[in-house]
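COURSE: Structural Biology Practicum
ASSIGNMENT: Worksheet 4, Part C
STUDENT ID: 0417
INSTRUCTIONS: Below are two proteins. For each, the amino acid sequence is given first, followed by its structure token string. Answer the questions at the end about the second protein only.

PROTEIN I
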Amino acid sequence: MTNAQFETFALSSLSSGVHCLQKEDGWKTKYASPVAVSVFGMISTQLASDPALWVDRIHPSDVDAVQAALDTINEEERSITYRFRDSNELYKWILFRCKKMEDGIIVGLLSDATKMRTKEYADRIHLAGRNALATLLNISDLVESINQFLMILGKAMVVDKVRLVRFRKDNKAFITHEWVRSQSIQKLELPMMIPIEAAQWWKNQLEQNDTVLIKSCKEEPIPSLDSTTNYDYAVMAVPAIIYGIVEGYVSFEVSGIRNWLPMEIEEALHVVNGYARSVERRIDDRNQIAAEFNLRRSEEKYRQLTSHSPVILFGIDAEGIFTLSEGIGLESMGAGAGDVVGKSVYQVYRNFPDILEQVNAALAGSESHGLTHIGENCFEVWFTPIWDEERMVVGLSGVAVDITRRNKLEQQQTIMMSELDHRVKNNIAAVMSLVTLSQQGARSIEEFAKALDGRLHSLAVAHSSLAKSHWSGAWMRDILLLTLQPYMSGSVERIRFEGPDYELPGLLARPMCMVIHELATNAVKYGSLSNENGVVTITTEILPEGSLRLKWVETNGPLVDEKPTLGTGISLLEGLVDHEMHGTIALQFEEGGVVCQINVPLSVEE
């Protein structure tokens, strides 16, 4: 055979045909071999009599891309794939391998690529179906997982919308999830109830058929689900059958006319069935949780009783492993319910031998009870052994109550009682001492009573000042004003205060009141306050070493000829300063009056 015969055989016998195109007011058929006409699925005379028919038969979604590709072809070979409508009004895929000749005519071989593209499409939607089902398992958020599920299916099947519709027992139905391909498509406000008659129609159809396939809603009118679909569109609806009942369906919608392929129907059935099984698994999980809840109902009720009280419930098995740890009291320990379950009590409380001692006693068969301090918290704990039918200890149960507040109150009460006892003893001792001193210097009952009354008054002033600060201390200026108030009457300022004010500790306030009283009493009897012209100047100063210096200076009083003999007042002053205030006192008897300087440390211990 000659080369020409080989070529003739190939062109007439193989599945590829020759197609030549020329651009004359658009691309038109110049020549189509008989095989090419057969591949197109056309009658041979159709393309020959109407060269523009080829372009008119290309799928509307592909025609612009095909013409643009033809415009850019040069001397290099190019492959173009497009959909073509045959004489039976069915689309097939065409693979056109072509090249431009010098005169601008495009010559190429075309073949039917429908099987190849169908297999690619089948593989793609099958893979998408697997991925869609995987999202239902991998994404814990149910709403998000369904949205991803619909999106993967919609993109793979090249549709405009995918919706999930659910039926309710009251015959109402809602669109609960929706995916749309383009932002230009109006989205619904979900969930959206669909008309009752539409819900009933769809439910009846899906109960009778595995799928509902609508090639064109204009050719086969169906009840509309919403007002946004007012154009011609195709629908494929697949029921979601859960426990044998049609609980809803997934609908695939695309604008225009579409013949749904068997592979699309098969994959949609498979994937929606997988969705239904995933819902059943979720329901089964919930039922299992509910069953477990019912089994533990009594335990939960017990927990509820302790949810608002500072109680901890715990259980420990025979090996020392926590089996229960519940109660709001755990919060005070910085722990949550169940945090220690599965852990050993000997490890968790290894630094608390008192707890482990009580655990061992309970596991040995003895009940135990005691107080345990964990950090700043105090717990009262009861341990009770648990016995099996053979009287063997199989573990223990326990209750711990947080009594931190009660414990602190009890400690405060103990301290307060001790402090009260101490202060009462001190006051009794002070009163007894004042009685003794006042008796020694008195020449009559009246003089004794007067001296004792003044000294008791100074003691009362000290108590009044300390009570204002809850016995934490008293301000120096308050002590002076309260103690000297009886001697400050009249229009002339006879008692003057100089220097800074300072809060004396509680232990210094009481003796300081009595010191001021003794100095004032002496000034009224013998010193500057015994006449009309005398003046007392009281100066306070805080020394660098943390001591208080108080200076009492009397002027313009009666002349003092000589140092008086040591009396009870001076003895009391020295005793108060030296022994109670741990300070020093210096007395000078000038002609104009007494000068007394007292230095006391401000930090004193009981």
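PROTEIN II
(use this one for the questions)
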Amino acid sequence: MKLRIWHKIIILILIPLSFEIAATAYLAQILVTTDKTSERFQNSRKILSEYHTMQNYLTEAGFDVANMCIYQPDPSPPAFEEDKRRVEQAKAVLEKAADIHPTVREALDTAPALFEHAIELVDKAKKNYDDPTLTLRKKGSALKNDVFNLLMESEPLFKRVADVETSIETLESSELQKSRQLIVSAAIIAFLFSLLITFLAALIFYRSFGKRLQLIEGNAEKIAVGKALPPPLSGGDEIDELDRTLHRAAQFVENAHQKEFAVLNKSVDVLCSIDTRFKIVSIGESVERSWFYRVDDVLGRSILTLLPETDSVRIRKILSESTETEIEHDFESEFKCGDGELREFAWKVRWNPTKGNYFCVLRDISARRKIERAKQRLLAIASHDLRTPLMSVSANLSSLAAGRFGELREDLKIALTKSEQSLDQLMDLIQSLLDLERMESTQAHLELNCVSAMDAALQSISTIETQARDANVHIVPPGRDESILADERRIVQVLTNLLQNALTRSAPSQTITVTVGSSGDMVTVSIIDQAPSIPDEEREQIFDKYFQAHKNNLNRDRRSSLNLALAKVLTEAQKGAIGVSTDNGKGNRFFVQFPKFVLDEPEDKQ
């Protein structure tokens, strides 16, 4: 039969409880016996005390019989009736005496017969006394021998009673002492046996519960570290069910880990855990593809040994400081890979206080860094080797158009002017590309100060005012001002790019409106044009660097796409936001939002 835990607990409680009940019953029995013994001695002392009175009754009766011969005839005859009554009463008391000590009973064993003899003697004396045929002397002398024999028979009984009285106190003290010793011995044995029962119950509890609970605790720790579990317990109580449930959970976790590691092992990134001594405690198989080490080669090894000395000191400091917070830390370093090469890796590290280790994701960025370096070289070429000859060509075209090399026909001047404009557009495109790449590579320095939104808008309007006039597009400046926290030069560049984009979209005789507004802690500058609305699918990508507008939009060019992308990068670098909306096909609203400038209050006020 399979017992539940509560069954076993009840059994463990009932076993010592039953013993305690038995021990208590035994002690109660001893106490009752002791009480009865004490009562028996009390009864014995009482009957011995009463015996002296009975002995006096017997003696008086004997004296009355013996002295009958000296009585004179008078109205007061001997009290034979009273003597008989008292002797019979004494005999009855002796016969009814119960629950007395055996020694006393043995000593008084002959007393009833003696008192019976006394009764017979009194009856004879009374009969003789009433016999008129006998003289007074004969009446008494006939019973003298009987009286003498009665007194002689009572002498040994009296001595036995006296001896018993002398020894009864000793007997009582001895037997009560035995009873006390028996009670103390029984109490000590009960206490020791109770301790034994308690120890056995604790041992049974430990073997039945504690040992299995320790096993379950050990199984939980094995699950935590990924070790195999022993076979499940086969019992039927709740602890065994808990162990079987734990085994099912372990199997579920194992399956989940297998799926997880199947995904992680296929990952390009290296995922690993590092303890507080910077030793690698777990790592995915992707280490073989990224670091060119086997998993066994790096497990238990300090990750700092895989870094150059300069990076090792820096990363030790970063990892040590990251234990103070649970936020994710991003940084980069070089790695000494197994093939002897130094490769660059980007780190993402988070401290796990529960497990007491670092969870790290490392991505190989060597190829990206090569591309970035190549791009930097291209930018250097574009900024120097390409712009310098273009500027030279632009200067020569300007000289030709100005007639410094002789007068030209009018059609040649027009052609040269168009070529110069195309060359300016090309240089503007190169400049936008350089600005965009420079911002994305975080090489630009921003100085955030209090900037007037209206002044920035007016500077941007003045920058493209000539182009707007040539395109017959009217620009309306803002009617109010707000102070914003931004880099003045960069915000003017952002607004100029947005105005240039609106001008590119606008048709002759249309209007571009610039507005300034505020909402809460943000200031919004809007550029509203009257051009056809941008389609929804283009609006979501219009700020992408290499977005190409629909081919039917003839007013769009590559320079406008770069300007919008650059405006987005510059805005977000100043903790701002940029967007575009449309009003039911009646134009487009490009807007930028910047934090409102708030003057710090003095720390001490009067």
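ANSWER KEY EXCERPT:
Q1: The two ends are 87 Å apart (CA to CA).
Q2: The domain at 267-364 is CATH 3.30.450.20 (Beta-Lactamase).
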